[in-house]
Amino acid sequence: MTQEVTYVTGSVAGTSTSQADTARREVGVAETETPQRRRAKPADRRKTLEILFFISPALILIAVFMLLPIIQAVRYSVYNWKGFGPLVDFVGLKNYARVLQNEVFTDAMIHNLIIIGGSIALQLPIGLGIALLLNRKMKVQSLLRTIIFVPYVLSEVIAGVIWFQLLQPQYGVIDTIMSKFGIQGPAQGWLGTPELALWTVLAVLTWKYLGLAVILFLAGLQGVPSELYEAAEIDGASWWQIQRKITIPLLGPTLRTWGFLSMIGSLQLFDMVWILTGGGPANSTTTMASFLVSEGTKRQNFGVAAAASVILFIVALILAVSYQQFVLKRDAQPADERIKAKKVKA
């Protein structure tokens, strides 16, 4: 008798459960088929079409001026092409081998790396020091900011021509001023001496792009709450302790963003070098960009120049992705995750 009651009870419970599941499924179907959800789908499609409509001009420009040139460069790089006639002499990866085995190109890569490291090493402390100075209240603050930012506003051609004239040997302004103090400049000039040419170009680049670093650092300093400075001063912290413990850590995202811009700009450096030295003397200032331009315009080796441009693109892409992954990634994390990561490391 007990077994029969249990069996009947289980049957009733199973029936109730199946009926409940069926009811839930029916309710779920009814919910998914409500008029509001039916109307939401056309609204989503309309929103997607509106987004595509507004970003389509940008996508077209990117396709025409970025994607298409990259595809064409890859296409030209596998042909031995002098710039005239159809592409018929297919050489495969031989152009890439010629570029990588070219001592001038390998030296150019080293020059680009030197410029990257030198630009960061010079512009970071100088720009940060000037930004901290200009962040204080003073009468000529606006004038000083303008004077420092003017070189960056000048075009590279104008700045290059000005410095080319200033650095001329003997009758140049730089050598003339130095001679007044009894200092003799290089006999072949600052830009004509292989041992000094690259460092001279680096000094000119520092003068040219220091204004961008200062403006970015000043913008970052505006976001540091003044209450933190006041609290630190009340606690008896020195000026250096305030900068090291408060200013520089809070300025970290700005510093890392500027470092990324400086790195990419140094990799693509061409115009300033081309005007000042043309890559000389003895290829001592050649960059990857000036190498590929020289190969294409002077030697008519457009296939080799295209291969060099593809290699430059790959190098820049690898460095940019690596920088994004290991340096800029922390700025994209929420504050809670960064705090947890610091606690885990501690």
Question: Which secondary structure elements does this structure contain, and how are they paired or packed?
Answer:
Layout: H1 2-32, H2 35-76, H3 94-100, H4 103-134, H5 141-153, H6 156-166, H7 173-180, H8 194-221, H9 226-234, H10 239-250, H11 252-267, H12 271-276, H13 288-297, H14 302-332, H15 335-345
Helix pairs in contact: 2-14, 3-14, 4-8, 4-11, 5-8, 8-11, 11-14, 13-14
Largest sheet at a glance?
Answer: none
Low-confidence stretches: 1-20, 26-33
Shape by Cα distribution: flat
**Structural class estimated from helices and strands:** mainly alpha
Please count the beta strands (DSSP E, at least 2 residues each): 0
Radius of gyration: 32 Å
Average per-residue pLDDT, rounded, comes to 84
What is the beta-strand fraction? under 5%
Number of helical regions: 15
Helix content: over 70%
Taken in chain order, the helices and strands follow as HHHHHHHHHHHHHHH
Distance between the termini: 68 Å
